[in-house]
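re: that complex we talked abt at group meeting.

here r the seqs, copy pasted straight from the sheet so there may be weird spacing, ignore it
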Amino acid sequence: MNERIKKASRHTSQSEGLIFEKSSPGKRGFELPPLDVPAADPSKTLGANYRREGVEGFPEVSEIEAIRHFTRLSTWNYAIDLGMYPLGSCTMKYNPRVNEFVARLEGIASEHPYQPQELSQGCLKILRLLEKCLLEITGMDAITLQPAAGAQGELTGLLLIRAYLQKQGNPRKKVLIPDSAHGTNPATAVISGYEVENIKSGAEGQVDLERLRQQVTEDVAALMITNPSTLGIFEHNLPEIAQILHDKGALLYMDGANMNALTGITRPGELGVDVMHLNLHKTFSTPHGGGGPGAGPVAMKKILEPFRPVPILVEKENGRLALEPVRPDSIGRVKAFTSNFGVLVRALAYILAYGPGVRQATEDAVLNANYIRKHLEGVYELPYSLPSMHEVVFSDAIQKKNDVNTMDIAKRLIDYGFHPYTTAFPLIVHGAMMIEPTESESREECDLFIDAMKSIAEEAATQPEIVKTAPHTTRVRRLDEVAAARKPVLRWKPGAPRSQAAD
Amino acid sequence: MAYPKTFRYTKEHEWIEVKGDLATIGITDHAQHELGDVVFVELPKPGTKIETGKSFGTVESVKAVSEIYAPANGEVIEANGDLQNSPEKINSDPHGAAWLIKVRLTNAAGISDLMDAAAYEAYIAEKGKETSA
Amino acid sequence: MRYLPKSPSERQEMLAAIGVKSIDELFSSIPERYRLRTPLSIPGPFSEAEVIQYFKDRAAENASGYSSFLGAGVYNHLRSVVTDSIIQRGEFLTSYTPYQAEISQGTLQAIFEFQTLMCQLTGQDVANASMYDGSTATTEAVLMAERLTGRQRVLVARSVHPEYREVLKTYAKNSGLRIEEIPFTKSGTVDVQALQAALKDDVAAVVVQSPNFFGAIEWYAPLAEAAHAAGAMFVVAITEAVSLGLLRPPVEADIVAMEAQSFGMAPSYGGPYAGVIAAREKYIRQMPGRLAGQTTDSEGRRGFVLTLATREQHIRREKATSNICTNQALCALAATVHLTLLGKEGLREMAEQNHSKAQFALTELLKIPGVKRSFDAPFLNEFTVELPRSVKIVNSHLLREKIIGPLALGTPYPDLTKHALVCVTEMTPRTEIERFAGAVKRALEQPI
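got the structure back, here u go
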């Protein structure tokens, strides 16, 4: 093991069972103030609905045990606060702490979505300002902040397209999706009631204009494109792509997952995009939290504005803001209440911190990716030669000669103190290694990453076994995913054997 | 693993063994090897009609799902119930105990056009060369 | 800029290492005419203090210092400060989806514990790691029933949250589902006879909510029986999860779609919350959302992994059970920590306090001349009353006394004008309940 390249120290090892295994009747972690009204008798008021024994199997532990339990669990996680996540198209940038602070303010966290609108002008102003900022960034005409995640944003976008085409008389049948697309794209198209037709990428991993011309018929409602592509390469033909679609009455949907390469540099609205979603938990720094929550606002051209999901933020004559729950042509509601508001607050805090200087973040992101690309070119195979933007995709072709593949290299990266990059995606690159450092990585961190990757390449050439059996330094190793899928155990049950927790 | 000479093979890596108007269908050793450890199989119920070239079920590994395509037309008489609890048999005995379905053929035409064992072995050897090129 | 770890000289060095003279060259793939030459017209940059001041100013324009009697799907419950101190740990807050199990055991074990808690609460066999919220969880539960039964008709109780029904409609429009509503009786609960009359062998699911939108508790047995007799699935939506601390769980359900906001998540003007789907074991492969499963590593130690991923979009793509990718993981973690702290006794006590205070509030309100109880069904912490005059007018008087009054039902239910949905939780002191009743009395005494 190359000592020179030991970076972040590994998690603390703790033997920690399930919270249910620590429980004992009579222990409590939280007490309520005493009841100040006469106690009702649920056996009388609720009759057969009464759950006399409480929830069986529920934990019973003290406050200190709860704190220790979850604190110990947390030490088993890698996190942005510890080091780089080079995950492509995830944009794992720093989650500013002031965002957490403002989202928790009394008067922000405490607001009920049904409270009178005259008592919610602060919340509505936050929504309005975020709308304005995101419209400025995307170059679009209208926006909805409702969708709770990127996938829901994609759904909303496709439903907008469908409603628009329907209003013209024919919703059409198909959506074209490049073979390089993220899995949510085809899944979403199907849920929106469209058939998916794949469009094969050109030689440089871009949308092939000739194929597009052939495939865009009057049955096609839209093309879903990611820009930059999932290879990190800018679709410089975007305006022509838009033209081809518009000529046949179809629309251009852009998956905004890769906005971190474009913010402040160019605007999708000016490139011909009709509708797009943004991932606030990617480009706009809201925390991933182990898998969510996120938010997926959808920005659009004027033609789609009438179909926006409700409620719609409007400005009245006296300057007051209001949310309107009814609109005749709206596609309807996509989520109860008013969006993942707390996530929107965090995104706005991020935008305000940067101001117009957010362009610098984009530049640093592209700088970092290209710096890494330069140093790893030749060490790993670069399947596409076009310039990279904020992410670069290598392949394991060179290492495959020694039977070392992208998964192995990714796992070995863990031993060097990094989270793996994105493996085996996009599907059009065999053995893909998708690397996106983001602007949050210092030069030092980039150098450490480059050193690690070079060292692993050397290992793959001279001692492949150590790569193929990685990781070696984690508290659990090579978990049996096959058994987990064949005989799923998805919950603890009382009487379950207290198996040996990993040490 | 040897490829039984009494079977016929498809380009999608299914095998079929015909006995009169009954046939047994499964996936080949090559297919199970490509998939990795099988965790789940979805098979049609008896009575379901299968059609040449159309998918009649799926085989899942941890990270992938594969459709299984019918090599002939027919009606399902029996699906291999063993595979519910022991999907791993597909990995250990794909040509024997891990047969997938038994069908009554409605149209045996086209089966003789399928590859025999030697042709199939040549086919997968050729494919192997393509992917490593 | 404090979030960017680069000095100007480092940028220059890195550009030189790449072999370009300026950062502009790295954007050469974007045609010149599409590159912005002026800065974005957005406010900022703000220092940390200025960011905080901006939001404090907005907070001051909201509802500070008001007593609230609103529920209707979003509930004010006590939250321990311990929960925030855990979910704000960087290892939880800033970690990614646990696809790399070896370095995500913290998240994965917490999810496994969450799934267990949800099963224990709902009386179901399996539960997922969260959906966006209760409304989308309910919708996905219906889509699940559609896949499992192969049928297209869905019967939804009118007493299910109006916004949940709206979301279901939005998704149903494009999947061929036909949604029909089942009325409620004058008890405030689902009309069983109307349900039986509507049931045929083309129904995929019967959807009810309990406690329902009016706060009324449904008795599941006859509803489930009727659904199952017709081969339909019985789906129960739950918006007030605290209710399960005192009410028997929906064991008759095939699928439960629950909103977990009541467990440690602030109201936050509408989100983020956490939906959950819990169901019978046999439906597991049709369940959307992530699942954490227990397994062992190569040395026999227990560990956890995301499992049954072949249901999900990143593998199945267009054949996925759902398009969901990002879920509400951190909110689900908040629920897990919250429930761990509350524990068995704490949750029961919280539910009991809610119930007692709501009973007390009802008693106080019924002392006011003209105020009637709308429905006679049992309730937990929400109930509906009928006022002798417009709820909106009464509420405008209440606002002057710094009370946010109950939800007027006339807009979502035109047949229920002058009815109001009152919610009382453990957070409402007795003095405020009494003040509220007094204010309602005064409002009703105002000349018209």
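couple things i noticed - Chain A touches chain B at residues 481-482, 485-486 (CB under 8 Å). The CA atoms of residues 138 and 268 of chain A lie 6 Å apart.
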